[in-house]
């Protein structure tokens, strides 16, 4: 079927995603099992693809499923990916799985956040780690990145704040570029304002993806936790809410940290 798409329609949106991912028309065609000619015709508005082709192209470009729905709407199709509330009874098994994963990480702190870094759930280890922060930072919706970098949050206890802050800022900024979102862009700007000046080059610089070094919570306790982080998500979710969940765990990088985490949780 040959037709003309409106300016700013599916063709433009697809080309924008392809450019953002730095994928050529030929590479996209190969990934999606079609031809470069067909991809070119779709982007120029000379061809109107079927729903399954749009989904294949979006999947090949790793477009988040929320935005896949938008691509379908732009092409005149109904969205196919539901967006459920997390307390929906149908997501009961998901909630159970999340709680088991969070509890399974104890005594290590672990959180589940949404696409904007807002707290969905946390385990006792995270609550122990954040004891003593300003109450307003724990009022819903709790922004975990802001909680980490705010001067009334964990920032005063972070020994390597300059490096760790830019690890957080760069990660949020990269996500806002990879998957454009106004709230993420605003969060990146807010975190940049909270972060110390970016460290300059030095012979000892290892980059900003470094372990978090955090002082213990007690006022007379000079012990330092050394934590590395892991990120996990549901790789096969077809519900927008579930697909956007991220689990971040703070794991001990040495034996003294493991012992101290266990002590903090017991308290």
From TrEMBL:
<dbReference type="InterPro" id="IPR001387">
    <property type="entry name" value="Cro/C1-type_HTH"/>
</dbReference>
<feature type="domain" description="HTH cro/C1-type">
    <location>
        <begin position="14"/>
        <end position="68"/>
    </location>
</feature>
<dbReference type="GO" id="GO:0003677">
    <property type="term" value="F:DNA binding"/>
</dbReference>
<protein>
    <submittedName>
        <fullName>Transcriptional regulator with XRE-family HTH domain</fullName>
    </submittedName>
</protein>
<dbReference type="Pfam" id="PF01381">
    <property type="entry name" value="HTH_3"/>
</dbReference>
<dbReference type="InterPro" id="IPR010982">
    <property type="entry name" value="Lambda_DNA-bd_dom_sf"/>
</dbReference>
<dbReference type="Pfam" id="PF17765">
    <property type="entry name" value="MLTR_LBD"/>
</dbReference>
<dbReference type="InterPro" id="IPR041413">
    <property type="entry name" value="MLTR_LBD"/>
</dbReference>
